Protein 1
Amino acid sequence: MAGLDKRVASYDEALAGLTDNMTIMVGGFGLCGIPEGLIAQMVKMKIKGLTAISNNAGVDDFGLGLLLKQHQISTMISSYVGENATFEQQMLSGELNVILTPQGTLAEKIRAGGAGIPAFFTATGYGTPVAEGKETREIDGRHYVLEPALHADFALVRAWKADTMGNLVFRKTAANFNPMMATAGKITVVEAEHIVAPGELDPDHIHTSGIYVDRIIQGTFEKRIEQRTVKA
């Protein structure tokens, strides 16, 4: 990687500096738009004690489920985790610390982290366990909960297209949590389906500016279906 060219040649280089007990953000929604190769590399690295911020925890044999299977995640900050039996077992046994967060609040906590906003008030969760231990305030007759922003040591993102300078385009629903997570990591690593030369991306179609991106690697991806429904 030299100058403004942010490409790296290996997954070892892509995740250099990631160590035990760090906080990671991992893009995706269900199995859509997840950085599969970067997750596989973390499994290979056998990193332990991770705090993972992600909308969900993959499934038992794919995505973040692979890290859970190897007991590499100690804390999950997430919104929806209903597809993963390993997650359920570890949560109920007390092995896994789980901080469930309403989906919109989770998205805004990440966006705020990337925007330099330390915290914000939201009405979501007031009067429920979500608000326990948090500051609340009444504003114009309505009650709100103070939610702190989220940051990560590494943000792991999947993009449809990236140019070598780190400008990103996300495709359809794979946009999900990826754009906001790209802004909230101390080190943002992008696994891209296609990498093109500077100038090949239409500036009007760029979703995330290259100023947020530190490393880019060319990925290969498996098409997975999270739930298959067939007609009898």
Note: Residues 60 and 87 are 8 Å apart (CA to CA).
Protein 2
Amino acid sequence: MKSLQLILSNPRYFGPAWVFTSLNIWFGTWAIYIPTVKEKLDIDKADLGIALFCLSLGVFTIFPLASKIINSMGVGKATWMGVIVASISALFPLIAPNYYLLMGSLFLFGATNGLTDIAMNTLVTEIEKEDGQNFMSAAHGFFSLGGVLVGLSSFLIPVIGNPALHMGITVVITFLINLLFFKRYVHITAPPEAKEPFSLKLFKPLFLLGIIGFVAFASEGAIVDWSGLYLKEITMAPEALIGSGFLAFSVSMTLGRFLGDGISAKIGSVKIVALGALIAILGYTLVLSEGTLLAIIGFALNGLGFSVIVPELFRIGGNVKGVDSAQGISFIAGTGYSGFLLGPVILGFIAESSSLKHSFFTLLGCILLVLGATFILQRKKSA
């Protein structure tokens, strides 16, 4: 909780943390209107999956360019530029008049989100180096806080009655808060550092961690993108409760990220991953019950479970014997982010060919595999 107090008491830390919050507010507001966009453009789940893939493609397209942009502009300026372009691009998906423009706008939205994501994480790293203060975990907690705010705003859907207007109001308010704090970090620069190429010999000890990361992030992405549609189509939830699954998931995710470090210190990294998997399994069981209230509680348990899994994967990955910590963390981040972006797309095709409920059965099966993988990790740790 010390890092949380640091952020709340010092504008130098609150400014970057609010960028984390902003990114999830923009993305989450788009996500709660996915069912509306699907109906408006009269597309099926497979088409929706392709559109979501365009968002993923935008993110992966910017990855090779992001470091050059950040180094040429300076990390502070690049973060602020990311805030500007991401806030503008957030408006386009909900006003797209046809399917093809939806794909194009999601590609742009993904690219600007990807740039902002890399820039803000680099910014926090540089501030930590300069000040000798650690607040990266709490900054990611603020990312989850953005989801909480989106979930709360979902109750205004019947009142506002217009997705584009809702997004417009959200963008303006979020941007104005960024405007108050960007001068606190815009001057910060990060000299480019030479990176060692990733060697194939490093793949073996990280293989299990990569699988766990892919599944954990894919599940998070699936709940963000599909929870609203699941509540609407499977549990027949009223319109006012469509965003409640995302809200419950985000609240518990936020609490888990702020409290997880203390639990990890007591029971260890592998055991807390196993505990998180067990909680997520219980969550999916409730989601698959098809009752609206039980499903919402299930999404909350999913958020709590995955909130402690993801940070511990980075911790374990940075301490794999014989593997440089930076390389281990980079591998976990790459596989995890791939899961976050590609998971919802794969589930879209499963939902279209079978049913949305079968997609969540698939997620349940994957998290059972994660639980099994923790026993292997514990055995290797004990050996």
Note: The chain has a mean pLDDT of 83.
Protein 3
Amino acid sequence: MSTRVYIPADTLAVALGADDIATAITREAETRRTNITIIRNGSRGMCWAEPLIEVQTDAGRMAYGRIKAADVPGLFDAGFLHGGDHEKALGLVDDLPWLKNQQRQIFRTCGLYAPTDLAAYEAHDGLEALRKARAMTPEAILKEVEASGLRGRGGAGFPAAIKWRTVAGAKPAQKTIVCNADEGDSGTFADRLIMEGDPFRLIEAMAIAGLAVGAQEGIIYVRSEYPRAIRILQQAIDTAEQSGFLDGTFKLRVFVGGGSYVCGEETALLESLEGKRGVVRAKPPVPALQGLHGQPTLIHNVITLCAVPDIITKGGAWHAALGAGKSTGTMTFQLAGDVRRGGLVEVPFGLTLRALLDDFGGGTRSGKAIKAVQIGGPLGAYLPPALFDTPLTYDAMARIGAGIGHGGIVVFNETADMREQARYAFAFCAHESCGKCTPCRIGAVRGAELLAEPEPDLALVEDLCAVMTEASACAMGTMTPIPVRSAMMHFPDEFAAPRQQAAQ
């Protein structure tokens, strides 16, 4: 009988040597005349334990973490194919507190099987939602999305049902579903994990959206820095078409982006899709009415769309009951920076930031005290420990001048220079700005120059932030002041004196 050994094939695991581990395990098994089957699965999101090897045993899947190719002979000697004890044994995957204490919905099956194994996807209730949706009217689908309270997970938290109804009600016959997978925020990787580990879920979600709004085409816009995700997505799409999963009434394709951060903004993304330079468009008209090639376009990011299958199978009311207030469902938070257990944590909205950092992050990897966390990407707010008891909901974050964004949380320890972090926000904007509007194009450059001075004119910095917030054409310029202002507000001592003295 063959023993199944699961070795992740996602970008992080491969970068840490997963391919070499797979080769070493294969060779060792051949030498020992042991019958095994290696399955290159998706990631569980336990970045802190990668490469994470799992072995199917009678008791369940046993996990071994931070494995190297050199560990393989010792694993065989320890009897790991039968769940034997080893210094890198973590225990049964289903019993690991880090995973057990989450409430995974979107990532419920990610990591259970090979990403392009359609039979395995179906065996775990895959396609159930699409089959149900095909038996529903478009209006019935829209009502479930509306009842769910689903909001966009890409940044703004805009109610999904409003977009869906707008596109559905538009008259032109040619409509498109666009998945924004241009995941550019620092410390974020949820989209990549789904695309590399559970792509059929995204494909199914887009097909359901097509049924609801009357779209005949879907496009997944993937950043060029994700070559593995691009390859896996295309393989999954080919398999879906050959199997009849995609029945020909909805065409799906992958588009590779050019690497521009501003193309994460929906109108710049549309310009890029049309073969133009990624520059933001004026709104109105909104993309839901005049999007790709001037036709109605529904744009969502990966995680927003991937919430849809469960909404269809379990009902909008079920989704609305998760979370807190107007922040319904679960959110996929990604812990990065100086954190001991970095990775993806999916929990209902409402958990406090402190609980996320302590219970799942486990404190800092360096052992130093946490000074600040940045939530929501490079244009997100810096929050001090005094605000860590804030619930992670859209409304609660807004009340303290922050946002959840795509769920990226980067931890900074006590050695961080917060004035330098504020200066970096301006410098990042200057580098990534599309250049269309003056407040963003010039303001970001001037802001970086001001904060590089020994004693910056903070009143002038604040005036500059006000101009960028009020007059920039898109979120690139309007949000750049958020990290700057939050750093100035919560860490004033680091702005009041020259950096040389503050460092002392």
Note: The chain has 24 helices and 16 strands.
Protein 4
Amino acid sequence: MSVTVYVPGEAAALALGADAVAATIVAEAARRGIDIRLVRNGSRGMFWLEPLVEVSTSRGRIAYGPVAAHDVRGLFAAGFLSGGIHPLHLGVTEELPWLKRQQRLACRRIGIIDPLSLADYLAQGGGEGLRCARAMAPVEIVRAVTDSGLRGRGGAAFPTGIKWRTVLDTPAPQKYIVCNADEGDSGTFSDRLLMEGDPFQLLEGMAIAGLAVGATMGYIYVRSEYPHAIAALNAALDGARDWLGDFKIEVRKGAGSYVCGEETALLESLEGRRGIVRAKPPLPAISGLFGQPTVINNVITFGSVPDILAHGASHYQEFGCGRSRGTLPFQLAGNIKYGGLVEVPFGLTLRELLYDFGGGSRSGRPLRAVQVGGPLGAYLPETRFDTMLDYEAFAAIGAGLGHGGIVAFDDTVDMARQARYAMKFCAVESCGKCTPCRIGSTRGVEVIDRIRGGQAEQIELLRDLCETMIHGSLCAMGSMTPIPVLSALEHFSEDFGWMRA
């Protein structure tokens, strides 16, 4: 009887040598005459343990990590195929504290299934949401999503049900479902983990959206830097066309522009033009792709939908707090001891995430600041670490959860330099359509350079420039760039020479 061995085929694990580990396991098993079944699963999200090798045993899946190719012979000698003890032995995977403390909904099957096996997906509970949706009227599907309290997980946190209802109520000969998989924020990777580790869940969520609004065509717009995700999605689509029925999905590779994460620029790119932001109104829900009503949500939003349809809106409402219902896959990155994916209900504090899951800084020095929500998110000091992870709680302190990306910095960070980085990022990535973003970010870099050079009196000019960008920019790229700059000024003024002025 063969033993099933799991070695991640996910990009981070591959970068750390997972392919060599997998090949060495196959070769060593052949040399010993042992029959094994190798599955290239998704990552569990514990990046400090990658490549994480798991073995299916009578006690459950036993984890070993981080495994290098040169460790494989020793693992076989220690009897790892039956869960034998070895210095890299971690125990039963599901009992590892990092995983056991989480409540995974959107990411429940990542790392567990063979991501390219529809049969495996269905055997692990996948497909139930689509089955239920096929027995419901469109308005009932929209009502379930609305009642669940699901909000867009891409950053704006707009109620998903309202967007879907708008598309449903807008008559048109053709409607579209578009998945924004142009995940470009620093420190974010939850979309990638789901696409590489459980692509059928994304396809199912999009198919349910199609039933809800009357759309028969969907597109997944994936950033060009995600070749493994693109390959996984295309392979999954090849095996899922009969299952999806009349709903068709195509994968489109992005052109490498950060601003194409903005929904209207994404639509321009999908239509074959340069990714430049459109003026609104009209909203994409009324006039979107090719001028037709279009649902645009990100990967985790669509990935959350099957669970809502399968288990009911009230079940999803049981997770979270206030107006922030369900769970969010947070992503810990930067100077953090245990970086990776943590899916928990809204309601924990930032401090709990940073220390109970992240283990504090990797350097061992005190954490001084974290940036939440990508490169346009606020920099928060230690005095804000007890803020609840909740959309409204973060808005109350001038911040946002965004896509759930969290980048940590220890006490050696220069926050004036980080503010400059935010402005420079905007200057490089701006689509160039509006003056406040295109020119304001360039002037912002120059002003910050003067401040860092000792001209603290330029701080008020920087504040005025930020106000102009906030109120005059066409899209969130320009209007949000001042957020990290102003938060750095507010909480870390000493780094700008404010105290010496």
Note: The chain has 22 helices and 16 strands.
